[in-house]
Every structure is written in C-alpha cells, then in structure tokens.
Records
---
Amino acid sequence: MKIQTRFAISPTGYLHVGNIRTALLNYLTAKKLGGKFLLRIDDTDIKRSNQIFEDEIKKDLEWLGIEWDKIEKQSLRFERYREALENLKKENRLYPCFETTNELDLKRKKLLNMGKPPVYDRSALKLTNEKIKILEREGREPHWRFLLDHQKIKWNDKILGTISVDLTSASDPVFVKEDGQFLYTIASVCDDIDFEITHVLRGSDHVTNTATQIQLLECMGSNLPIYGHHSLLTGLDGNNLSKRFGSLALRDLRLSGIEPMALASMMSSLGTSKPIQIFHTYNDIIDNFQLSSFSSTPTKFDPDLLYSISTKVLHSTPLKGVENDLREIGVPEDKFATFWEMAKDNINKREELLEIWNLCKNGPGSI
Ligand code: GLU
C-alpha cells in the first residue's frame, strides 16, 4: 500500500505548538512507513485566509525541518467540490435550508433551555417546492446540509482504540454556506479521496467530524483511511492551550531562539509512555517513533521544559551543527573546535555565542 498522510491547515493564523503535534505525527508516520507527506492548505474561507499566514506556516515547517512531498490548496479545487455536491444532490443526500443565522441561534437556545442537545431539527426537509420557490424569489440564498444517516459509526482508532459515535445526536452538517463558501467536511473528504490519503491523524476535537466523514466517504463509494486522534495539549493548569495561543506560536518560539530539534524531540514523545529524549536528526526520531505509544488523555505542555530541552539540544550539538553560526560571528576556522568546546556549556541560545566570542577576542584569556 502506498502510504500518504497529510497536514491540513487553514492559513488564518500562525502555527502553534498544538498544530505542530499534528504535523509531526503525520510527517513521522509517513516517513516511518516509507510514504509521502502532503501539506494541505485549507483555504476555502477566502475572507479569512491570508497569503501571509500561508507563507509563515511554510517558514515554520521549514525551520522545524518538516519537508512536504507535495502541497495542495483547496481554493484551487472548487470545481471538484461543486461536482461532488451535484452528485450528493442527485442522491438526495444534500438539501437546501433557508434559516438565517439568527433563526438557527434561536432554535439552538430553545433546545438547550429544554435540556435537549442543540441538534438541527431538519425543518427544511418539510419545505414544499412552492415554498422553496417563494423563498428564492424573495432573494433568499440557501445553505446546503448533508442528510446524515442516523446510525452508529465505529472505527478502530490508532490512538483511541475502538470508537463509536452515534450520529443520531449530530446535526446534519452544512457543506455550503449561503454565500457559496464550501465548508470543511466536503472539501476535506474530496481531498482525502483524490490524494489517496491512507492515514488521517489529527486532534481528538475531530472525533465527531470523523464519524460524519466516514459516512460521506461511504456514500461517495470510497475506501476509508486509517484514523488516529491525538489528545489535545493543555497548559500546566489543565486549561486549553489556545487561550495562551500568542506566546506559543511557532513563530515566537523560532524568533526566541528555541532549537528546532528541541521542539521536534519534545513533541514526538510528549504524551507517550516514553521519557523525552534528545534527538539531533529526524532519522533518530523516526527510529524511536511509534504512533500507538501516544496516550488518549490530555497532555500538558510546559514551555519551561521546552526551554530546558532546547539548552540540552544545544549543549550536545556537534561542531558541524554550529559551524555556520561560528563563521557568521567571525570565529576563525582553526579556532572552531576549541571555541565551541569552551562556549557550548555557557550558552542557552545560539545568539549568545557572539557575546562569548567578543569576550574571548578581547578578554585577558583570549584564545
Ligand atoms: N483544517 C482543519 C483543522 O485545522 C483540518 C482538520 C483535518 O482534517 O485534519 O482543524
């Protein structure tokens, strides 16, 4: 079997440590199994997607040493999504809805007040053709929902084990918005089919989406990929990390001098039964990597631990790994080895090399 994984990311913000866990699991799984790793830009939301974020995402991945074999952009595939939707309409699995956002909000609140789950009541299915025509004449644009089969969906998750999701308690997902924007589920499933994705590894916040996607894949006559849902990262207090998003953006870590292999070492073992090891190459990470060793319980992320791993990575970096830095600050080649031996244990970040070199050059014990 040709292995193909993907990292699917919306270019609506900077990458943060949580995203990196997903990217790494997909990258490492592909490489471990001799497969390919696809970078998928989920930019169907034209208004919120931004080329600047896409460029930054690529820069962050490159800095981390995660190389993609192929890149795909959803905004270039609207024709394909349109075609898939037409087929679903023909099979009566897609239906037009005319409720406004306010109307839907009201319905949701009512149900919640009655202590019921806020599941869409499918009232649009009761609209007669005449009524639909009237609404259209009034200039109302429909959004389109996928008609779920109310059944239990089961799969064997590579991280969570056997999972069963009852779609009876799920709302029919919207595939296209009033303004024509394609939403995540339809785009993602078309892509997973067309790009022959064999493993879908993502956060456990996608478990219900997976059940819907399995049903859609079956409806479109496709084989199912293997699924794995990793736990979400939390802060040390157990709260969601996204609240502290800013300081944990990869861009900030990169600019603050964190060693990329420190982040890769930490994220490839955090939340597994193994202790965190220091790795200097992806080959070593791949040798030690095992998807099944990831636990399903929320994983605490400690930024201070990342800083201390980064220092350890730096201290154990062989001379070859810092030659460029030494050259840049003006250390003569014949002094590289002596200088690095002396300097390495006295720094926490590469940028501190300059200060030490200045001391060595000018100080009493200059080398
Ligand atoms: N763009 C989606 C996200 O970032 C992709 C999820 C997926 O299918 O992997 O949540």
---
Amino acid sequence: MSEPITPQAWWPEASRDWSADERQLLAQLDPGRLPAHVAIIMDGNGRWARQRGYLDRIRGHEAGIDSVREATRTCAQLRLQVLTLYAFSKENWRRPKAEIAALMELLRRFLIAERDELMDNNIRLLAIGSLDDLPNGARAALDETMRLTANNTGMKLVLSLSYGGRDELVRAARKLVAQHPDPAQINEAAIDAVLDTAGLPDPDLLVRTRGEMRVTNFLLWQIAYAVIFVTPVLWPDFRRRQLLEALADYQRRERRYGGVGQSTAPRG
Ligand code: FPP
C-alpha cells in the first residue's frame, strides 16, 4: 500500500515558482485523486512550425522539447508515479530521411542535456518500444541516461521510441509462447508481465494534443480503462496550464469500470 497523501506538506513547495493562474488551477485539484500514470501523445509540432512560416518541421519538434521539459517537471512536482511520452512511433520511420535524422539528433541531445534536470528532480528514465531500431548515437545516450538515473526513486519518465502498440503485442506474444507452453497458464497478469510496460501501472489518463480523436497505436492494451483528454492545443504550446486543465478534467469524470459508481481499476 502507498503512504497516505499529505498534500499540505508538498503542494506549496511544488508550486513555489508557478504563476498565480497555475496555482489557482492547482487549488481546484484534489491531491488524493491524481492519476498515477499520465500518457501523452504529443502531436502538432509540424503544424506549429507551419503556422509560424517555418519551412522546416524540425523547428516544431525543437519547440516541443520545452513542452516535454515543463510537462516532466510538473508531473514530478505533483508526485505522479509515471509519465509516458509518445516520442517516436514505428510509423514515424516512414517520414522523410532528413526529418528522422533531425529527430534522432534532437533525441540524442535531449537525453544528454536533461541529465541534470532528471537527477535534480529524482526522475528515473525508462524507454519502451523496439529500441534496437534506434541509431547508435541516440541509443548510447538513452542507455547512459537510463543507467545514470536507475537509482532515482521519484517519478518514472517513460519515452516511447520506435514504439507501436501492435508491435509491442507481437513481441509480447512471442515471449508468452516461449514462457508458457500450456495456453491455460496465460491470463491478464501473464500478458502484463511480457509487455514493455511490465511493472508499471496502466495509464489512468491519456492526453492527446492537436485535436485528433485517435489513439494511433499507443499503449493499446494498457489504456483499456484510461480517461482520454483531447485538446486542440499544439504540442509546442502545451504548458503547465494545459496539463493542470487535463488533470482537472480527469477528476471531473467518474470511472465506473463497468460497475456502478466510483470504484478502483479491476486490475494492476
Ligand atoms: C508529432 O508532431 C510529434 C512527433 C512525431 C515527435 C514528438 C517529438 C518531440 C516532441 C520532440 C522530441 C521528443 C523528445 C522526448 C526528445 P507532428 O510532426 O506529427 O505534427 P503535425 O501532426 O502537426 O504534423
């Protein structure tokens, strides 16, 4: 069991450098009912760049890094357990070579530049997806940052890299068959245990920016009971304020899990 939450002890500290607006939004939240795991589909970098007349979409991805940093810091300050970001999908390999190369370089630089920030905030970095697809530079930076942060005990930041929900399920099925020759042994817990997200709680809240009402192959098994929050805001414009609004929306909704009234998730 987790320890009882005593918000009075940490909320003023968490929001010390926030604006008055943001503090007001925070005050509307119930600290005892925050999601344990927030997952975000970061969409709209390309449109953001186009809206500003930039010819290069990478300008949008670069701007998106600031949103990644602010979302990560805020979720850690709020003491969420897990923040998962859809940083690069299996399908993203179909983008122009130059954009892929720029994104991988951005990822490599991010993984090195953010080490102090992750350590200062006691955040542990994890990654899910077909990580062997990554170019050597990005992979080495990822492995090193995961190693450096491995003993951090606060929030887990999970980057989804070369990730696809169906790809994850195929890889999981192969492991299942190898581990369980008897199909009767296979149950939900056995499937959980062979997913990339093994050991993590399922997302309670899935956020998507840029307004598309889709889940695009993200955490297909794990979002079974997640509340979904879609905002038209483009990812580079997504700031603490929008994150707090998503959390407020989450708390307004009652999750029934097929039962009656408020209850807890039927598993994990
Ligand atoms: C979608 O925008 C976003 C991506 C494909 C990648 C997201 C990457 C970042 C935010 C930067 C790198 C992240 C990390 C963690 C280093 P889009 O290009 O599909 O936008 P559009 O839908 O407007 O075209």
---
Amino acid sequence: MTNGQRRVSIFGATGSIGQSTIDLIARNPDAYDVVALTGGHNVAQLAQDAIRLGADVAVTAHDEHLPALRDALAGSGVEAAAGDTAIEDAAMRPVDWVMSAIVGAAGLLPGLRALEGHATLALANKESLVTAGPLIMATAQAHHARILPVDSEHSAVFQGLVGEDLAAVERVIITASGGAFRDWPIEDLASATLDQASAHPNWDMGQRITIDSASMFNKALEVIETKEFFGIEANQIEVVIHPQSLVHALVGFNDGALMAHLGAPDMRHAIGYALHWPDRRHLPVDRLDLARIATLEFRAPDEARYPALRLAREVMAAGGLSGAIFNAAKEVALDGFIAGRIGFMDMAHIVEEVLIRLDGDVSLAHGAMTLDNVRAADQMGRNTAQQVIDTRR
Ligand code: NDP
Ligand code: MG
C-alpha cells in the first residue's frame, strides 16, 4: 500500500474481464494506485484506460503495436512497452493485487511472476491452473502469496467454503448454462457457424470463452480448475446444466447439506469479491428477484453433445503434463474453428486425437511440473493439433 492506496496491475486489461475490473476500480479511483495495464491488439482502449487510471506503464503483447501505443500515450507520462518480455517485466513490478485476465496459456507466466513478487493473484485465467495447476499453487505457497478465484463457479465454491472444513466436503457441483447450442438437435451441431457459437444466452464474455461455453470445453477446463484449486478429487466434482445461470456452484457436505451460491450473471460479482476480499463491499450488480425468476432448472449434461467433459475426466486421470497438452490442443482447435478450417464438433475430435497420439509419451506422463516442461508439453500439444488438422484436410 502507498498512502493507503492499493497498488494494482491488470493483465488482459482490454478484454471482457479486464474491462469489468477497470469498471470497478474506476468507481473508486482514490483507493487504487494502478501500476501496469496490459493488452493485445486493442491499443486505443489500452492507452485510454492507462491515461484515465494514471497507470505507470501500459504494455501491448505485440511489438508491431508499440509505435501506435507510444503515439497514443504521448505527453501522458504513462510509459509504453511491447512484447511478451515486457509483459513479464510488468508482472515483476511490486503490487498488492494483480488481475490475471489474459486469455489462454499466455496468462501463465505473468501470473507466476506476480506470485513470486508476493502479490495477491485474482485468477480469471483458468488456463494457468489447467496447464500447470501444481506449479502455480506451489509458487503461491513458496512466496506466501494468495490466489483468489475469479471464475464465477470457483468464486462461488470459494465463498461456500468460508468457515468450513475441507475434510467435510463430499462434493462440488459447478453449473453450466449449456451454451449457445444447448437446445439444438445434436445432428445440427456439426454445421454450427462461428457467429452462432459466439452468441452466449446468458453471459457477455470474450469470443474464445463464449465458443468454449457452446462446446463445454470451458466447463471441461473448469472441472480441472476445481480439482487443482481446491485439491478436490475428480470423482467429487459434478457438472449440472442450469440454463438460468443464477446458481453458480454448490458445495455438498458430509451431512447432506448443499450450500448454493446465487447471483446475477455479471462477472463484476466474482471480480469484486476478489478485489475486496476478505471484506464484502457494495457492488453495482443486479439484485435477484426470486419471485419473478420463479423457476430454477437443472439437468444432467449429455456427454454425446459435450465430449469435452469426458476428455476432461481422462486428462485428470492421466495427470502429469496432460493438462498442458489438453489446453494447447484445445486452443489450436479453437483457432481452427474461428478461422473456418474445421467444424464445430471437429474441435473435440482433434483434441481427443492429440491426447491419443501423445498418450504413453513417457516425458509427458512422468515429466516434472516445471515451467520448462509445461512449455514443452504445451508446444507438443500445439504442434500435434496442427498436424491433426492439416492431415484432415
Ligand atoms: P478476452 O478475449 O475478452 O480478453 C483477453 C485479453 O487478453 C485481452 O486483453 C487481450 O488483448 C489479451 N490477450 C489476448 N491474447 C494475448 C496474448 N497472447 N498475450 C497477452 N495478452 C493477450 O477474454 P476474457 O476477458 O473473456 O477472458 C480472459 C480470461 O478470463 C480467460 O482465461 C477466460 O477463460 C477467463 N474468464 C472469463 C470470463 C468472462 O466472463 N469473460 C469468465 C470466467 C473466466 P486484446 O483484446 O487487446 O487483443
Ligand atoms: Mg466460469
């Protein structure tokens, strides 16, 4: 803290989670000393927010955008930087609190660096836990740094566990909206278009996670995230479809009690909880009118419609570096779908093919959970997924 202000940095500031974080911080600017904001292609937004919040430094991930960022920041006193190393450097600037909201495996390294600097890490980047859960948890422990979940389901579980003994937890149930295609005939899914997959029924999110919601790869990542973050066994984690997206998760205890967390589908809820933790503060989110809502529905997910859920179970059973392979293959398959190279259901087929091809690779199954090994597994997953896509054409 400086002058009672909390020093904060936001990684992925130009994205959906980043912008919601900025919304909360900008409502109370005197409480925060903003150190670093990072973005990717959206240089105009990055510069505008960095100036508005008086950040020390603004970093774009892409070197080619540095001149534009410099121009946009000229005369403002905000430093401009570009590239992955500059993002890593920004993560090493001392702060009290960091929002990790870069999308994809690129979010891992800045998160690790922030933890090494003892910052509290508000973790939206679920890919960090999927690719390198044990590494990121061990890094937090070694540096006495705290990780607070920002994914809505995980924030809900975290809140449900306050004051409870983890040994009394029997199961955790995370809910899924079912995404854009939950009510589509299953035979139509193969021809689903990018626009159709990019429209979420309940949540307003970045395009990649929205498509991952339609395929349930998002929920697959979240099941693994639950296991890694809370140290809960895979067979204690359940997924239930809940079309209203008002119950975010439930914790089941050994006396049969189920504690549910409800709230409006607005990520400022979970972001605000992580920002103000351990306090609760007023948040500008809608209040639920239960009588008007009247009905909450739940149903079991159909694994034929959502093969990603089965793949997540296989990955958890395999352990080791298979999470890094899974996530990397998923990212490449998603790129392929966004580029129009493969169909919607092909994404799961490709990821499964990668897992089969790399199953039994000793270096992956028994490789230690180091950053170098995670990166090598990630690269192997990406290369193999690309080969699978290329040979299918
Ligand atoms: P967006 O796509 O909206 O934003 C992603 C952010 O990361 C942007 O700032 C983007 O920059 C930046 N970025 C993209 N690629 C790179 C890269 N290679 N290196 C550095 N920065 C990069 O994503 P969301 O905000 O939706 O999601 C962020 C994370 O939070 C994801 O891990 C997602 O799974 C998780 N999450 C999101 C939720 C949501 O409601 N959106 C809910 C729960 C979790 P730019 O846009 O300028 O190119
Ligand atoms: Mg979620």
---
Amino acid sequence: MLVSAKEMLNKAKAGKYAVGQFNINNLEWTKAILLTAQENNSPVILGVSEGAAKYMCGFKTVVGMVNGMMEELNITVPVAIHLDHGSYEGALKAMEAGFSSIMFDGSHYPIDENIAKTKEMVKLTSEKGLSLEAEVGSIGGEEDGVVGAGEIADANECKAIADLGVTMLAAGIGNIHGVYPENWQGLSFEALEAISKVTNNVPLVLHGGTGIPEDMIKKAISLGVSKINVNTECQLAFAEGTRKYIEAGKDTQGKGFDPRKLLAPGFEAIKATVKEKMELFGSINQA
Ligand code: 13P
C-alpha cells in the first residue's frame, strides 16, 4: 500500500539516516527501485516530476502502474509516491489521481506568496492524510524544465514555511540538479545548520543528490537532512549500461534486440545505484 512520507521521514530524522527519493521515468525504473527497496528492507520515495508524469501518460497511469506493481511484486516496505517540484495545478491533479505525497514548489514566488500558497496546500494535503514538501531558496540547475538560480535559503523564511505545518522542507544550500560543475563550491553547512536550528525538527530535504561526495551526504544527514533526492545518477547508470550492451554488439546477436534483453543491463545498473545510495543514506533495514 502506498503511504504518506510523514512517518518514514520522522523515523529517519530520529534515527539519523535519510530516505532516498528516486525519480521514475518508466516501468523499468519503477520496478528496479521497488525491488531494490524490498530486497534491502528499506523505505523508499518514488519521485515523479510533472514532465515525467506527462511522459508516462499522466498521474493516473503512474498511480495505476505503481499500485499494480506493489501488489504483483509483493512489495511490503513503505513506499510513497511523491510529486516532485509540483506547480499548484499539478499538485491538485496529482492529489486527485492518488499520489500519497506532494511537493508544492513555490520557491520562485515572492516569499509572501510562497507562504500563502503553501498554507493552502497544507490544508488540502492534511485533509487527505498526504505528506507535503515545500521549498525555500532554490535548487540550482534544471530538472524537467524547472530551472533554479541556486540561491541559499534564508533561515527566517524557512522557519515561516516550516511553521505552517509542512511535513518536510527543501531548502537551497548550494545544491544543484544534475551533474555538479568542476567549480562547485560545495554545500553550505553554515546555512544548513542555521536552517536546522529554527525549523522545529521538520525533516529537511536535500535535492540534487547526484554526485554529492559521501562525506557531505553524511554531514548533511547529521545536520537534519532526512530525505535525499536522486535522479540524474540513475539516468547516467541506465545510459551507460545500455551503451555498453549496444557497443558490444549484443543487440545484433541472437535475440539480443528483444527489449527485455536490451533494457536489462540498464535496469540492473539502476538497481545497483539505488542500493549504493540506500547504503550511504543508512535506510537499509529501516522499513
Ligand atoms: P539530481 O538529478 O541531481 O539527482 O536531483 C534530483 C532531484 O533533486 C529531484 O528533485
């Protein structure tokens, strides 16, 4: 059964580990992530951006696919299906379709408007028993057309949003979606510490999990990060696995062109990446 992310994140916060949000793109992605979570007895969050939902034929298709897989694959670990960087309208649609968790990203609005809209979302999601993520500051880079300047979040603004009763808070601390550039300055732990102090134990979310060095991930968790989002790293692993298969000419040998064979190395590569992250985040055996 799909669950809200509230309980798993509060548990993670208390236990000083983080739950991974892995974004999905299609059936192979979803199956790889669900199976890895089950095999490792780990809670998991399936992230779905509005662009990915559109690609997968809409929110209802995604919910139907995930529910079907959970039943057929006997997935018993806690799984949340979470809208990633949702717009106000997108959030309403995802809720209606049966998402168990919502991110409303109002970070591009002036703070008063972000507060007002997030407040409405708190009401709507809590009425349905869903978890809600809000964002302050912005995550740099681009994800599915959502572009962020990468500002460091202001602690007072974070406090104002956290006090609205959101389940979790994403705060920009120098993190970027996609691969980090050579000259990246690293995460601002000063900002994270300041935010953590005033946000009343609300689990914090670290976006842009791809390519953040292990020591920074561990330090971020120790300072209150309880959810870490990973997207690009699974895409790179899938692409590399698929490329190797084709470059070795395996698709031209026997029935190697069968999509079930052609997509298998990429699928296994996603599984390995997800497992590695779950180990690093400390969520294994926390289901
Ligand atoms: P990456 O693609 O950098 O891993 O970021 C994922 C993310 O933050 C999803 O919201």
